Amino acid sequence: CRSIFEREGTTAGSVLRARSAFNRPELRARVPRVTHKLYWDDPHADAFDARVVAHGDLEGRPSVILEATLFYPEAGGQMADWGTLGGAPVRDVQVDAEGRIHHVVDELPAVGSLLAGRIDRSRRREHMALHTGQHMLSRALLDLGKAPTVSSRLGESGATLDVDRVLSAKTLAAVEARVNEVVDEHRPVRALHPTATELEAMDLRRAPKVEGAIRIIEVEGFDLTPCGGTHCTDTAQVGWLRITDAVKHRGGQRLTFVAGPRTRRVLAAESESLRALAARFTCGVGDVAGAIDKLERELGEAREALGATRAAYAAAQAASFTGDPLVATLDADVATLRALAAEAAVGRSLVVLSAPVGDAFHVVVARGADSPHDCGALFRRLTETCGGRGGGRPERAEGRMERAPTPADL
Questions:
Q1: pLDDT score of 33 more than 70
Q2: 400, 363 in Cβ contact below 8 A?
Q3: What's the pLDDT tens digit per position in 158-199?
Q4: pTM of the predicted model, to two decimals?
Q5: Helix axes 288-320, 334-344, angle to 10 degrees
């Protein structure tokens, strides 16, 4: 079509010849053509009919190119739509450099055939809420935190947004509250296709990443951003946006967030976990944090008491040991074994203590302050005899062995 127009101009005759060429399958498959994006016309639609105009190849995978599609291709940080074409599953959806949208399928339908398409409505609904929520979150971060968005990704299990600075928890709470305030205000969300003159007059949050005709997503009175993704038509459809995590990332900060149906799933799972903890602590949901604080205090006190008891036991037990070098296998946990080795090494040239741990033995090698022995070197030699692994410094070494060292091994 393009070559006919360039050769003859857009006369009535050339239009008819181009249309005739496009209706011939053997020519249509070679014609570059931008797929019409039905998801721009109505993001809430989930079914359509479209004709196959060509077969394609997407990195070795066969694909179908339609004259128009509701399937959003993976782009701009947003995942592709899922669904069926002619009743067969669509495995992936991608767009090529010419603007043709490829639908990856297992078997290719004939060029020229009319197919019924249906997208996964729940997946589309989630992506719309996440993408619109991301626009609103980026605007609030810029307005309240002076933090422009560096990049964003709406993944299968997590949505992230990167900013160029680290914001405080207080600022992030204010940002989240501002977004949800706009959600509750029921503001219209529109897709605009401005002229070049109109585009110059717009106060865009970021500059367009493409040239030519630009599509602008407007959250009324709040945000104007160039974007080709699918979005809600009303801020209320975002439901509730929540920032679930904030970590330092490449000199800035990476925020993880949820919106729409994903928020409900995440909060429901967290609620179930909290209720389970409340049941275990036999307290109310609101008292779980206090119950955990109490448990941590009691655990700290118990550890201190255990440490004091272990030290007293190690001192008393070490006093009963005889011989230098000292080689012994004991019935003790690893922490007690370490304490015993430290006590027994005082005044001795070398101590080798072991204790059974499952099918192996934990071994600690220690030396006295004036001893010339290299515990690390000795431990490595013992592993050659007893089998095992570990290591340490000249003063002390430890690890696991397949059997306990004997005086003969030493």
A1: no
A2: yes
A3: 999 999 999 999 999 999 999 999 999 999 999 999 999 999
A4: 0.76
A5: 40
